[in-house]
Give the backbone structure.
Amino acid sequence: MAFRVGFGYDVHSLAEGESLWLGGILVPHTKGTVAHSDGDVLIHAICDALLGAVKMRDIGFHFPDTSSDFKNVDSKILLAKVYDLIRGKGYSVGNIDATIAAQKPKLKDFIPLMEETLAEVLGVDAEAVSVKATTTERLGFEGREEGISAYAVVLIQKES
């Protein structure tokens, strides 16, 4: 098969006094993610999408939250390791499309740097990485600012 598609989703609760890492960058906010790693929901969703595209389970299987090796780990490291697994199966990224769902903070000013950062970690052109953000119109846990989620779709292609 020359092309494969993967889908990923991640969610973390938000709390005061925590850091908010999204797309590999620190986003200033009064709340951050509660997590074993740095809690970067965007990168975690992308990792799951990549792993799913090649039927390699999920991020929790490869980097369990029961392991001290991954305590407070920078999710960019996890993304690089996942991409090494994907390349090991002979695939490369065609493109990534992702959406972050959060009522606050407003993310539009941070998205270009997220896209550049993700592209740099993966060694792909920034045009291959699309990040969007949406509120949930104050509905659900994101709307109540109890948590944040991200969705990602990836297209990978077999390398020649």
Notes: The CA atoms of residues 102 and 148 lie 5 Å apart. The beta strands are 3-16, 21-22, 25-26, 31-33, 91-101, 129-134, 147-158.
